[in-house]
Automatic annotation (TrEMBL):
Residues 1-35 form the signal peptide. It comes from the Eukaryota. It comes from Sakesphorus luctuosus. The keyword Lipid metabolism does not apply. Keywords: Calcium, Endoplasmic reticulum, Glycoprotein, Isomerase, Metal-binding, Repeat, Rotamase, Signal. This is peptidylprolyl isomerase. Gene3D superfamilies: 3.10.50.40, EF-hand. The keyword Nucleotide-binding does not apply. Residues 154-189, 198-231 form the EF-hand domain. GO terms for cellular component: endoplasmic reticulum. Its EC number is 5.2.1.8. One of its GO terms (molecular function) is peptidyl-prolyl cis-trans isomerase activity. It catalyses: [protein]-peptidylproline (omega=180) = [protein]-peptidylproline (omega=0).
Length: 231
């Protein structure tokens, strides 16, 4: 569900396999765009509540994060969201810095390490602005407060490691055969039952949304949409 939280993900026993279809585009939240000048005028306030002695690795754009957090309205302190009681209480997975959460959270969770806890205050311009978010019980022009506990920082789905894993012949481009084989391996790992046509449909969708020049390959540049690693 879109809104104050990242898209729901089913729990996985292996964090390294937490995103089954790594090439599939990730859903963005329907948050109204704010004018750059307006957003720049207000800042996210960050208070570190707990910092582990060994604070590594630190999160960066494109990393896959796993976290619990509570959301409050700054106006009256009322809680509008708690990840521990939502969707069976599983910590939330999302990719940092690509719009899967409101802009203020993307900013607030940069350079954060596993085990760290933060309390962050996010102005309306970096949250839901003048429109608010009725479904999430967030009124217009609301300043939001989140208490965040970060559990894991992993290489995101568009990392160099993920690309090289799929690129069997190391030619810096992904063929239909390579991605087809990768999908088969991922399907076998998660053990879910799928209709026989699912493989072909997903493969076609991947190329439709990622093969921008239509040459039948997904290049390193086309794949690395988050621009956080060099291929």
């Amino acid at each position: 569900a879109a809104g104050t939280v990242p898209r729901r993900r089913p729990p996985r026993s292996d964090m390294g396999r937490g995103l089954t279809l790594l090439l599939l585009p990730l859903a963005l939240l329907a948050v109204p765009a704010q004018a750059e000048g307006t957003a720049a005028a207000e800042q996210v306030q960050i208070e570190v509540l707990h910092l582990p002695e060994n604070c590594s690795p630190k999160s960066k754009k494109g990393d896959l994060l796993n976290a619990h957090y509570d959301g409050f309205l700054a106006s009256d302190g009322s809680k509008f969201y708690c990840s521990r009681t939502h969707d069976q209480g599983h910590p939330k997975w999302f990719v940092l810095g690509v719009g899967q959460v409101i802009k203020g959270l993307d900013i607030a969770m940069m350079n954060m390490c596993p085990g760290e806890k933060r309390k962050v205050t996010i102005p309306p311009t970096l949250a839901y602005g003048q429109q608010g978010y009725a479904q999430g019980k967030i009124p217009p022009n609301a300043t939001l407060i989140f208490e965040i506990e970060l559990y894991a920082v992993n290489k995101g789905p568009r990392s160099v490691e993920a690309f090289n894993q799929i690129d069997k012949d190391s030619d810096k481009k992904l063929s239909e055969l390579e991605i087809s084989q990768y999908l088969k391996e991922e399907f076998a790992r998660d053990g879910k039952k799928r209709h026989p046509s699912a493989h072909d449909e997903i493969l076609a969708d991947i190329f439709k949304k990622n093969d921008h020049d239509g040459d039948g390959f997904i290049s390193a540049k086309e794949y690395n949409v988050y621009q956080h690693d060099e291929l």
